[in-house]
Structure formats: C-alpha cells, structure tokens
Amino acid sequence: MNKDDDMKEVELNEMDQEKQPMTGETPTGTEKNGCVKVKVPDDTEVKFTGLSKEELMKVAGTARWVRTRWALLVLFWLGWVGMLAGAIVIIVQAPRCKPIPEMNWWNQGPLYQISDVNEFSENGLKGVEEKLDYLNQMKMKGLVLGPIHTVQADQSSTLELTSINPEFGSESQLISLLDRAHRKGISIVLDLTPNYEGVSAWFNNAASVAERLKEACEYWLNKGVDGILLSHLNDIVNTEAWPSVQSVFNKTDGTKKRALMGSVTGLPVDYVSHLLNRSSVDLLLSGLPDPAEAGARQAQEIQILYTDHLQTSLGWTLGSLGSLASRTPAAPVRLYQMLLFTLPGTPVFSAGDEVGLKAGEKLEAMWDLESQADDGNATTVQEERTAVRDFFKALSDLKGKERSLLHGEYINLHSSPTSLAFLRIWDQSERFLVALNWGDGSVTMTLTNSDLPAEARVRASTDTENLAVDRKVSVEKLELGPKQAVLLSYGFPG
User: Fold this and answer.
1) What is the chain's mean pLDDT, rounded?
2) How far apart are CA 286 and CA 268, in angstroms?
3) Are residues 444 and 396 in the same domain?
4) How far is CA 138 from CA 80, 130, 131, 362, in A?
C-alpha cells in the first residue's frame, strides 16, 4: 500500500467517525459522542386497534356494563346535588348585605347656600352659572339661592314671590342656570322667605302670605326648580295654611322628588325635634350643634335628633347666621368642616366656608386664590385658604362615596367639655371614627367599642405633623392636640 492509499484510508476512517452516533454508543451497542440511537420497531410487532363496532355492541348489552353505566350516572347526579346543596348552605350562612335606605338627591352630598348672589359674583345669576364648574369641583349636590324675589322691607303689599329682583338678574337667566346646573348633576333650591330684608321674615303674620307662597311654590317647581327653602319655619308651621303649602310637594309626576326645606335658628333641641315632626319637611337646617356649647351638650343634641328622626331629614349648618367664620370667629374652620361632613345627615355650607373666610371679608376673595400675590402676607393667606379648600374637597369626596358617611349608623364614643368622638358604620363597608378637640389643651380619648380594632388609618387630619394621612395610629388611647381633628377608617371586622 502506497502513501496515497494510506491517506485515503485515514480520510475514510475520519469520515466514518463523523458518521458515528453522537450518543457515545459504539458499533457494538455502547453510546458515543452523545448521539441518540433510535430503534425502529419490527414490522411483526403487535398493534392495539381497539374493539370493532360489532364487538362494542355485543359488550354494551351485557348486565355488567349496564350496571356500571347506572352506577356512574347515579354518582354524577349525587355529586351535582351535593355541590348545589353546599352552595345553598354557603349562601344561607353568609352575612346578608343590609338594604340601602331610600336616598334622595339632597342626601347624596353637601349643599351650598348663596344668600347674596351679587356678593358671590358681580354678574348675579349669570355669574352663579359661570361658577358651576367650581361648585362641581367641590362635589356639591345642591345649590340654595337667595332669596332673589321682589319685595320692599316690611311692606307685604310689595311682595312678588314669582318675580325676580332685577338687581339679581332675570327669569331667563334663572332658567339658563337651572338647565346648566342639571346637566352637571347640581339641583337648585330657591329660598322663598317672604320678608328677607325686613324685621320679621313673615311680616308678623305668616297666614296672610300663605296663599301667595303656595302659588309661588307651584310656579317655580313648574319652571324646573328642585326645591324650596323657608327660613324661620316655626312661624308658618303653626298656621292653618301650612297643610296647603305642603300639598304642593306631595304631588309627583314620576321624576325626581322636589324638596321642601326649612331652617330655624336659636331653638332648643327638643323644640327642633318637635318642629321636625310637626312640619314633615324633607330637610330641616337647625343650626345645631352649637359651637358655643360644651362637647357633652353637642353630643346630646346630635344623639336626640339622630335617635328621634331619619337622618335623611337632618341638615347640619353652622352658618345659619352668616358664614362659618362669622358664627365662630375663634373656631378652627377645618375642625368644623370635618364635623359637618361626618354627622349623620346633610351638610349645608354657606359660600366662603370652604376657604375659611373671616368675618367681614367679601366673597370675592375666593376668586383671588389662583392669582399670584406680590405681598408676602397675602401669599401666606392664599396658601392657607388653598389648603383649607383642599381639605374641604377631600372631605366632600369621602362624603359622596363612602356608605358609612352617607347613611351609616352614628355611635357616640366620647364627649367632654372640649372634645367629641363618634363612629359611623354601615354593614360590611369601611368604618369611620371621628375625633375632635376644640379646646386649648391636648386631650387623650379612651375609646372602647366591640367594633374597634387596635389601629386605624388616618384619612383626614388637621394635625398633619402628628397624624399624617395614611398613617396607622392606636385607637384605644387617641391623643389630639388643641384645636385639632382627625378622621380614621378601618375595615369591616368580620
């Protein structure tokens, strides 16, 4: 064999090695180089082809397979019935949701009262319409206007309850306001207190104007107004003409309910409760609780009204005698905002309450918050009012979407001369704990209730340094600084 033949043999051997299985198996059966050896079955191997149709029909009719099919059928239905029974047991034993009480539009959020439309906006009724976006941002469900009708002080002969004082605008402007407000989900209430600029709201003789009042209620309701407010309600309720006024609101045409509202000031809680029963108004603004009274007294007033009446008829306002600031000049505005938003009923705010205007300040100061002030003191005031407004908006948002705050139960937890704490709970919804201290010193509240957890989450606070929003705090011993308030929440304990 020459050299060339040797080289060819080497090449062939190398080719043969490259063609060897990669499993590491040698030609004798061992694996080599990681290749996989595939074994092809012999043609003589037996394959399973199953039973033919004739064979299946023959077996299917035997007693053994009939019994087997019946057994499987019985087991299937027993299993199905068992699962159905289990589901029924779970449904029956599960806690049932409490039915939602009947809610009308004035129970679904705060109301906003503009007593002087010209002071609120230089364009009167047209200016109010221009501010509807602002009111919508504040989550207002209703707007109480006026009075805006025509009358000269203490002269009943000049009373025109169906005529708008030209100083405030025209009827067409009111209709335009109604249309746009309704498209934004805001209801409009007219204050028809007859002698609103005079000494006596009812000319010292409510019965003498009752018929004109009835006609005016019918007139404005037909124009699309959503409700009527009457101040000094006790003066007309005690007349024989009251049932005829009430009858106007008892009519229904299948649309949303029209509200008859009233307000009183300076009356003791027992008389307010009696008046609410006697008048049967849809909402009564009582001016209670009174910030000048001790916390224990305020807690008692709230409890009496809550116990004796549906909370859907309770209206809370601290501004019946003007703005919140003028009613309580030394009171922390945010503290009383929190109180009104969390009581069982409807909070009613006067224009300016949302930014904490001080007594004597004009409402136009509200519209300066977005402008840049050059003076350092003015800037500080703007920042504070903006913070108050943001606090108001946060509470208004909670009021409108949390069932416990909208229509939940009220449970008093603590009261002292300077402080108050209570619970708002509804069925399986988020629970809320409200604590307020309007005293000049700190207070530690010992709060006990079977529903309370060890800790709760801060949802709103006037003391962001010690009680920051979203922080978890102990509930058993809750400490509040002077002039401070906090809103806590916790889940359904079940």
Assistant:
1) 85
2) 9
3) no
4) 54, 15, 11, 20
Do 163 and 265 share a structural domain? yes
Whether 430 and 389 map to the same domain: the answer is: no
What angle, rounded to 10 degrees, do the helices at 295-308 and 269-279 form? 20
**Each residue's pLDDT tens digit, 49-62:** 666 777 777 766 77
Q: Within a domain: residue 156?
A: yes
Q: Amino acid letter at 133?
A: D
Beta-strand relationship, 419-425 and 409-416: antiparallel
pTM of the model: 0.80
Separation of alpha carbons 461 and 24, rounded Å: 77
Is residue 217's pLDDT more than 60? Answer: yes
Phi (first) and psi of residue 377, to 5 degrees: -65, -40
Q: Which residue has the tokens 């199953």?
A: 50
92-123 pLDDT per residue, tens: 776 677 788 888 999 999 999 999 999 998 89
Q: What is the number of domains present in the chain? A: 3
CA distance 455 to 267: 39
